[in-house]
User: Which sequence fits this backbone?
C-alpha cells in the first residue's frame, strides 16, 4: 500500500500568536505625502510581518527619503517607486497579525483615481484610518476621504494625526485638528470616531504609547485597531441567504448553497423564498463537518427545505417575519469607476448578490462635488464621480438598504459590450419606476418600439443587432437596440423584460433557442402586431438580415408619418 | 467566528460563485500545501455533492517523485477527476533548466503548458492557489483576475472589485483566473492544515536528506540533480518550504517534522517563503513579468 499522505498531528503546543483569532479588515486613506506608506510600513515592520530578504531588497534599492536607518515607506512599494516602475496605482492588500488579531489592510493610493480606489478598499473594510498631516490640518482631501468612508458604510474611523514630531508634539495642534475631525464625522454620521496623535516616522503612539506626548491618555494606534469591535450590524439583522448554487448529488438530496449575509439561520426556522414568495421551513443545515443546529452571519452553508420548491441561483431565502424590500426602481448612491462615461439610455448588466439583471440609470438626481461635498446637477457620470441616481431594472430586486445590509444593498453595473465593471451602487430606498408611474414613458420622443422574433439562427440575430445599432441617425438612436437571448433569461423573466423594453421604445431583438408560442403571444400583445417581425426567414443569413432591415425601415417610415 | 473560519467561508463563497458563473472551470493543482487547502475548500463547497470541475496538474517532468505519488493517491482519495498535462513537444526537444535557464524553462514547461491545457480543455475559468501575501506584484491581484485571449494578464486593465460582487463576464476566448486563497497568509495555510488534518506531501517535513549547497540554495540530490565539479554532497536535516521542480527548488535546514513544529518555525522565520526558490532570483519583479505572460 502506498501511503503518500502524512496526516498532520494535532498538538496543543502552538503558541498564542499562532492560534486562530479575530479578523479585522481596515482601509487606509491619506493624500500623497501624508505618510501613509510610512505608517503601514511601520505597522508591518513592528509586527514583524516583513521578512529579512524583503528588507534586504529595500536596502539594496539605495532609496531612503526618511532620516531613519530604513525607509519604511518602501515596504509597501511607496507611491513614487511604483510610479517610476510604471506599475498601476491600485488597491493593494497587506497582511499582518498581533497575538490578539489578524489584520487585512486595503491600502489605497491617495492621488489619482482616489475615489475609485478608496471606494474599492472601503467596500470590504470594517474600519478606516484617515491620515491627517499635523503640519497642514484637516484639508479638503481628508474631508473627501472621510466622506467616502461614510458613504461605503464604514462605522469605525480612526483619525491618525501624523507627523506630530514636526509640530514639536504639541497638544494644541492635535486638539484643534481633533475638534475639526469630530465635527466632520458628526456631520457625516460616522458612529464611532477614534483619534491618535502619531509620528509614523519615529514610531510615536503606533505600537507603544509615546513618552513625547504624555498629555495623550488614549491607547496607541495598534491597540485601537485591536479593540474596535468586529461585530457587524448584519450579524444581528434578519436572516438573508442568497442562493449561489444548487447541490444535487442524488435524487434524495437537494441543497441550496450560499453565504449568510445577515442574521442567524436555525434548523426549523420558517423562511420565505423570493421571488416566488413561497413559505417553507429549514429542514437541515449541512456542512462538510456535519449538520448544524444554527449558523451565523458570514457562514457558507448548504440548506435543505421542508417543501420541494423551485429555487435556484439568484433567489433569496429570508426571515418570514422580516422580508426584504422589492422593487424595479431604486434611489442609489453610485460611484462611477470607469473611464467610459455613463449614457442615459444604455442598458447595463446589474449584479446584485447572486443575481444579474438588466438595468439603466433612469435619472441622475445630483452629483457630489468632491471639493465642497455640495450637490450639483449632472447629465452624465464620469470616472470618479459620486452621484445619487435612480436606477431601474428589468426584473425586481429583493434588497435591504445598504446601511442595513452591505451585501443586499450593493450592486455593480457591467457594460454589456466590453464587460467592464462601470459603477458601484449602494441602494438607499425604492424609487418610483418610470414605467409604473403615470408619467409618459421614456420613448415619448420620436422613438417607437419594435421587436424581432428569431428562433435558432444566433448569428443572424447578432448580425442584425449590430447593423441596427450602426444604422441609427444619431448615436442615441443606434444605441437603443437590445439583443435579448433566452439563454440569459427564463421565459417568465423574458415576459417581464419584454414589457420594459417596449415601454422604453426599444428595438428588441429576441433570440430564442426554441419556439415558445406563449411567449410569442406575450411579445405581440406588448408591442402590437404590426411592430413585431415574426415571419419565416430565408435560409441564407445575409438575405435574412436584409429582409429584416427592410421591414424595420418600412415600419419606421410608417411610424414617422403618423407623428406630426 | 475566528479568522480561519471567516477565511474559509469567504473562499467557499468564491469557489461556489465561480462554479456557478462559468461554463467550464478547472482547478489548477500544484500538489503543494496551498493546493491541498484549496482542494479541501472545494470539497467543503459542494458537500455532500462531488466537486463539479476537474483538477489540472501541469507536469514539467522535473517534479519530485514524492509529489507525483502523493498527487495520484490524494486525487483518488478525494474522488476528483485529475487531468495531467505536459508540454510534450518541448520535453521531446530536451527542454531543461540547465540549458535554457530557469526563466525560459518555466516559460515552456509551465506557462506554455498551462495555456495549452486551458485552451485544449476549453476552460473559461481556472482556480489557482496564489495568495496576495506571497509577493509584491500579487498584493494588487484581484480575486477574479481577467486574462485576454492569449491568457495574458494586464495589470492596467483589471476590473475594480467591490464587496464580494465579482464580475466574471468575458468574451469567447477570454478567461478568468480565480484565486480563492487571496486573503490567506502562509501562516493561515499551516494553521488550517493543522486544524483540519489535511494531508500534505512528506517533503514538507524535516528529515535527513542528501543535499548539496549551491550558491544560496540547498538542493536535494535526487532525480537528475548532479554534483558540479568541486561540490560535495552532505546529509542534512532539512525540508521544503514550498514545492516546485527538483533542480529549481531549494530546501531549508530545519528540525520541524510535525505541523505544529512547522508553525513554530514559521513564527521565528525571518525570510520569505520564496527566498529558497531558485527561480525567483532572476530579477526584481520577475513575478510580474511571468504573470503578464500568462503564468499564475
Ligand atoms: N517628520 C515626519 N515625516 C514623516 C512622517 N511620516 C512620513 N514622513 C515623511 O513624509 C514623506 C512622505 O511619506 P510617505 O509615507 O511616502 O507618504 P504617502 O505618500 O502618504 O505614502 C516621506 O519623506 C516620509 O519619510 C512623520 O511622522 N514625521
Assistant:
Amino acid at each position: 500500500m502506498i501511503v503518500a499522505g502524512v496526516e498532520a498531528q494535532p498538538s496543543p503546543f502552538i503558541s498564542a500568536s499562532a492560534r486562530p483569532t479575530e479578523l479585522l479588515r481596515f482601509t487606509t486613506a491619506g493624500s500623497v505625502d501624508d505618510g501613509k506608506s510610512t505608517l503601514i510600513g511601520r505597522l508591518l515592520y513592528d509586527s514583524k510581518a516583513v521578512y529579512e530578504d524583503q528588507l534586504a531588497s529595500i536596502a539594496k534599492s539605495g532609496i531612503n527619503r526618511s532620516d531613519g536607518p530604513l525607509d519604511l515607506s518602501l515596504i509597501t512599494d511607496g507611491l513614487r517607486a511604483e510610479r517610476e516602475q510604471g506599475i498601476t496605482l491600485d488597491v493593494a492588500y497587506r497582511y499582518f497579525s498581533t497575538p490578539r488579531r489578524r489584520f487585512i489592510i486595503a491600502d489605497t493610493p491617495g492621488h489619482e483615481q482616489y475615489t475609485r480606489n478608496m471606494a474599492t478598499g472601503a467596500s470590504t473594510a470594517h474600519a478606516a484610518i484617515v491620515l491627517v498631516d499635523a503640519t497642514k490640518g484637516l484639508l479638503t482631501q481628508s474631508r473627501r476621504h472621510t466622506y467616502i468612508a461614510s458613504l461605503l458604510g464604514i462605522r469605525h474611523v480612526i483619525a491618525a494625526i501624523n507627523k506630530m514630531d514636526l509640530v514639536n508634539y504639541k497638544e494644541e495642534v492635535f486638539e484643534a485638528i481633533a475638534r475639526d475631525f469630530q465635527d466632520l464625522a458628526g456631520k457625516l454620521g460616522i458612529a464611532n470616531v477614534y483619534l491618535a496623535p502619531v509620528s509614523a516616522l519615529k514610531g510615536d503612539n503606533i505600537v507603544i504609547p509615546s513618552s513625547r506626548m504624555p498629555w495623550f491618555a488614549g491607547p496607541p494606534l495598534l491597540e485601537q485597531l485591536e479593540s474596535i469591535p468586529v461585530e457587524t450590524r448584519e450579524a444581528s439583522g434578519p436572516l438573508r441567504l442568497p442562493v449561489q448554487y444548487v447541490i444535487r448529488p442524488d435524487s434524495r438530496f437537494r441543497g441550496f448553497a450560499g453565504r449568510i449575509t445577515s442574521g442567524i439561520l436555525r434548523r426549523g426556522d420558517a423562511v420565505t423564498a423570493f421571488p416566488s414568495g413561497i413559505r417553507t421551513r429549514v429542514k437541515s443545515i449541512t456542512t462538510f463537518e456535519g449538520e448544524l443546529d444554527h449558523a451565523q452571519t458570514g457562514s457558507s452553508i448548504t440548506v435543505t427545505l421542508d417543501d420541494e420548491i423551485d429555487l435556484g441561483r439568484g433567489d433569496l431565502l429570508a426571515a418570514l417575519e422580516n422580508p426584504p424590500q422589492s422593487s424595479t426602481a431604486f434611489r442609489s448612491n453610485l460611484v462611477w469607476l470607469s473611464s467610459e462615461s455613463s449614457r442615459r439610455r444604455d442598458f447595463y448588466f446589474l449584479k446584485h448578490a447572486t443575481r444579474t439583471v438588466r438595468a439603466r440609470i433612469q435619472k441622475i438626481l445630483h452629483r457630489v462635488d468632491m471639493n465642497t461635498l455640495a450637490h450639483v446637477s449632472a447629465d452624465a457620470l464620469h470616472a470618479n464621480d459620486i452621484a445619487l441616481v435612480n436606477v431601474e431594472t428589468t426584473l425586481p430586486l429583493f434588497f435591504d438598504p445598504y446601511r442595513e445590509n452591505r451585501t443586499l444593498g450593493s450592486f455593480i453595473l457591467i457594460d454589456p459590450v466590453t464587460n467592464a465593471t462601470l459603477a458601484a451602487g449602494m441602494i438607499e430606498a425604492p424609487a418610483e419606476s418610470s414605467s409604473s408611474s403615470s408619467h409618459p414613458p421614456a420613448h415619448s420622443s420620436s422613438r417607437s418600439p419594435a421587436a424581432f422574433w428569431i428562433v435558432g439562427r444566433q448569428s443572424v440575430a447578432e448580425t442584425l443587432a449590430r447593423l441596427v445599432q450602426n444604422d441609427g441617425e444619431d448615436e442615441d438612436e443606434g444605441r437603443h437596440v437590445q439583443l435579448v437571448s433566452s439563454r440569459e433569461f427564463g421565459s417568465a423573466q423574458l415576459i417581464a423584460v419584454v414589457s420594459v423594453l417596449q415601454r422604453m421604445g426599444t428595438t428588441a431583438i429576441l433570440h430564442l433557442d426554441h419556439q415558445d408560442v406563449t411567449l410569442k403571444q406575450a411579445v405581440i400583445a406588448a408591442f402590437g402586431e404590426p411592430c413585431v417581425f415574426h415571419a419565416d426567414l430565408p435560409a441564407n443569413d445575409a438575405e435574412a438580415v436584409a429582409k429584416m432591415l427592410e421591414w424595420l425601415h418600412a415600419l419606421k417610415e410608417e411610424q414617422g408619418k403618423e407623428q406630426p | 467566528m475566528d479568522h480561519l473560519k471567516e477565511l474559509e467561508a469567504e473562499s467557499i463563497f468564491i469557489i461556489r460563485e465561480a462554479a456557478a458563473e462559468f461554463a467550464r472551470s478547472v482547478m489548477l493543482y500544484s500538489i503543494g500545501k496551498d493546493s491541498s487547502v484549496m482542494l479541501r475548500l472545494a470539497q467543503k463547497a459542494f458537500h455532500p455533492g462531488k466537486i463539479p470541475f476537474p483538477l489540472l496538474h501541469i507536469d514539467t517532468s522535473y517534479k519530485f517523485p514524492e509529489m507525483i505519488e502523493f498527487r495520484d493517491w490524494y486525487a483518488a482519495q478525494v474522488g476528483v477527476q485529475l487531468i495531467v498535462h505536459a508540454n510534450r513537444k518541448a520535453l521531446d526537444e530536451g527542454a531543461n533548466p540547465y540549458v535554457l535557464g530557469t526563466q525560459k524553462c518555466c516559460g515552456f514547461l509551465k506557462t506554455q503548458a498551462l495555456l495549452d491545457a486551458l485552451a485544449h480543455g476549453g476552460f473559461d475559468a481556472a482556480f489557482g492557489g496564489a495568495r496576495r501575501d506571497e509577493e509584491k506584484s500579487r498584493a494588487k491581484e484581484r480575486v477574479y483576475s481577467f486574462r485576454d485571449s492569449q491568457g495574458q494578464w494586464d495589470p492596467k486593465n483589471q476590473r475594480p472589485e467591490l464587496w464580494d460582487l465579482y464580475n466574471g463576464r468575458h468574451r469567447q476566448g477570454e478567461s478568468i483566473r480565480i484565486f480563492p486563497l487571496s486573503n490567506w497568509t502562509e501562516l493561515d495555510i499551516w494553521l488550517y492544515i493543522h486544524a483540519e488534518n489535511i494531508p500534505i506531501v512528506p517533503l514538507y517535513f524535516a528529515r535527513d536528506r542528501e543535499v548539496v549547497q549551491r550558491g544560496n540554495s540547498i538542493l536535494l540530490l535526487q532525480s537528475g540533480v548532479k554534483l558540479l565539479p568541486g561540490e560535495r554532497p552532505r546529509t542534512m536535516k532539512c525540508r521544503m518550504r514550498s514545492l516546485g521542480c527538483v533542480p529549481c527548488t531549494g530546501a531549508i535546514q530545519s528540525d520541524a517534522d510535525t505541523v505544529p513544529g512547522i508553525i513554530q518555525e514559521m513564527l521565528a522565520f525571518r525570510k520569505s517563503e520564496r527566498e529558497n526558490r531558485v527561480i525567483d532570483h532572476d530579477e526584481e519583479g520577475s513575478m510580474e513579468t511571468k504573470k503578464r505572460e500568462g503564468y499564475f
User: Anything to note?
Assistant: Residues 102-121 of chain B form the longest helix (20 residues). DSSP finds nine helices and ten strands in chain B.
